[in-house]
Amino acid sequence: MTASGKEEQHRHTGRRLAESTLALHTHFYELMDALRLFLLIIVMTSASECSETTKPPCDDYNMEYFNLLEGESFYFVPYVFYDISTIPHEEFTWYKNNSKVELISSDEKDRIHHHGGALFFLNLHPEDSGLYTARQTLQSGECSNYYVKVTVFRTSDKNNSKLLYGHIKNSDVNKLIPCPHPVKKTCKVFKGNFTWYKNFTPLQGEHEDHLRVNNAKKKDEGIYTCVCSWTHNQKVYNSSAARRLQMKERVIRPKIEILFPMNKEQFAAEGAGIKLNCSVLCGAGENNCHASWDVNGKPVNQMPGYNQTIETFTGKLSQYTISTAILVIEKVSAQDFQTEFTCSGVGFYSMNSTTLSLKREESTIPVLIRAICVLFVCVFAAVLLKCFCIDLTLLVRPYCTGCSHDQDMRTYDAYVVYQTQNMDKVTEDRLCRFVTNILPSVLEEKCGYRLFIHGRDDIPGEDSLELAEDRMKQSRRLMAILTLSSVSQSEITEKTPALPQNSAIRGFDWQVGLQDALVHRDKNVILIQLGDPGPQGYRCLYPKFQRLIHQSAPIRWQEESPDAAAWNSRFWKRVRYLMPATPVKKHPPSAII
Questions:
Q1: In whole angstroms, what is the distance from residue 389 CA to residue 383 CA?
Q2: What stretches pass through the bilayer (predicted)?
Q3: Which of 55, 312, 420, 463 has a CA 20 to 30 Å removed from the CA of 40?
Q4: Confidence label for 361 from pLDDT (cuts 50, 70 and 90)
Q5: Range with the lowest mean pLDDT among 189-193, 223-227, 275-279, 472-476?
């Protein structure tokens, strides 16, 4: 082979090798494209399947638990719904998921059925216990799960504490027992009627959604059951819930007592210093007892010119605590008399306060002058009352006749007795004028009194002793007329007793009068002395008569006085003052003072 042939053969071999290499690369790229397409198909298919089968999970709400009693009914709506009637029923599916899932019917004839989101248990049985689930599915595909676990107790277990909706235990005097929410809500939805029971005994007249126990005592403790009777599909069902009432001992915290200041005002001298004491007493249990002063409602440390120190003392066994705050005012100013100082006691449970104001000290001279003036007025009033007591009494008597206690059924106002023996002519004439003229003209004619005058009103022929005794008993006063001879004669009679018929002093009239006045105290005695009793006075009388004169001093009548016979003279006013307030027999009225 020539050289040119060999070169041609080499070129042909290189061309075939290049073509083979190009074909190999072309097949490789085709294979890679096919593989990519296969992978893309697989990915798209998987994505399409996932988009069709994968759904988002449902929202799960908290489970609710209810313990119910056999034979009663139960109406349940998940707690998240305020008004279930506005939600379409088609969105809800109820089922019981215990050992096997049981679908809950919506047929109202079934004992357990549902109306949309509301679940009804009518006439509960123990086998109704279990877990119930409601699934709500929206049109968007979102869903929610609601769970309720129901435990039904037999009627024999009605005392089980698991059936109670808590305890009511507080220290309030008046207790409020509200009906538990499930039963209260059921009654509200179905417009039912409430009935209350205490220890399973009905309480009369209690038909509210709550029960009040006023002024609760230990005997009021027990189980209070609220029963709602409601109607569904023209049938009446009962739902109940109970609470236990327990009495908690009421803790009475003693109030803080303000010991000082005791008065609302305290005297102070302007320009001088003063200390104000604020002391408070805190009882047992008041561990944080604190006394303090406030000046015009502000703390002392915010007011210049005032200093305060506080001390606290705790008694034995911590039975009491006394806190004292001393407010020091170094120099009282005029402004301090317009300032309000407040003493406050603050404890852990209570507080108390009182206010104090400063008052200028007054000089003792004005106080002394006022005291002297008051004393002078009192003495002057007493003197006036003493001097004009008789006049005031006579002035008021006509208006107080209805309240007089001196009225009785006696016939005479006074029995007048006097002495006629052993008299000189002048004394006898004076006595005769007084007894027969002056005395009747004033007391009987002008004052309306009725007198029985010894010697004037005697009935002829009647026994003088019996007459004197009877008239004496029928008289309200005994008026004895004393003369100088009666005073001097008494000494003679005491030394040498005379017969009763020979001496007026020892006469029967005097004996009966003295007996009533001194022993029986049956009537008052009015003694009238005619003239001057003489230098010896009444000392010459025997002791019984002196005793009578000591009880009722004689009224002296001076005939020589220009107004001796005037009914409004001082003498006759004293006589009228001793006479009864109301005469036994009314005479025509006259102007009497």
A1: 10
A2: none
A3: 55
A4: confident
A5: 472-476
CATH superfamily placement of domain 158-247: Immunoglobulins (2.60.40.10)
Q: Which of 226-230, 283-287, 414-418 has the lowest mean pLDDT?
A: 283-287
The domain at 408-578 falls in which architecture?
A: 3-Layer(aba) Sandwich (3.40)
Matching residue, tokens 């004839």: 109
Q: Say if residue 261 is preceded by a cis peptide, omega within 30 of 0.
A: yes
Cα–Cα dist 134/143, whole Å:
10
Closest CA to 528 of 442, 407, 593, 406: 442
The secondary structure of 269-290, three-state, reads CCCCCEEEEEEEEEECCCCCCE
Domain 257-360: CATH superfamily is: Immunoglobulins (2.60.40.10)
| Distant-in-sequence, close-in-space partners of 386: CB < 8 Å, separation ≥ 6 | none
CA 470 → CA 212, 228, 474, distances in Å? Answer: 81, 94, 6
Handedness of CA 523, 529, 535, 541 (dihedral sign): negative
Parallel, antiparallel, or unpaired: how do β-strands 257-260 and 274-283 relate? antiparallel
Tokens of 7: 């070169």
Query: 578: burial class by Cβ within 10 Å (0-12, 13-18, 19+)?
Result: middle
| Average pLDDT, integer, range 28-52 | 51
Q: Is 556 exposed, middle or buried (0-12, 13-18, 19+ CB in 10 A)?
A: middle
By the 8 A CB rule, do 360 and 334 touch? Answer: no
- Please state, in angstroms and rounded to a whole number, the distance separating the CA atoms of residues 65 and 166: 14
Answer for the pair 400, 581: CB distance below 8 angstroms, yes or no. yes
Q: How far is Cα 261 from Cα 354, in angstroms, rounded to an integer?
A: 8
Using alpha carbons only, give the angle 494, 497, 498 rounded to the nearest 5 degrees. 130
Closest CA to 259 of 144, 343, 170: 343
Q: How many CA atoms lie within 13 A of 181 on its CB side?
A: 5
**CA dist list (Å): 67 to 78, 142, 149, 178, 304:** 16, 31, 9, 18, 69
Distance CA 354, CA 263 (A): 9
Most distant pair of Cα atoms in the chain: their distance: 231
- Check pLDDT > 50 for residue 49: no
Residue 371: helix, strand or coil by DSSP?
helix
DSSP state of 301: G
d(CA 228, CA 237): 8
CATH topology of domain 59-156: Immunoglobulin-like (2.60.40)
Contacts of 2 (CB under 8 A, 6+ apart): none
Beta bridge partners of 238: 229
Q: Which residues pair with residue 345 across a beta bridge?
A: 291, 352
Of 195, 207, 178, nearest to 238 by C-alpha is 195
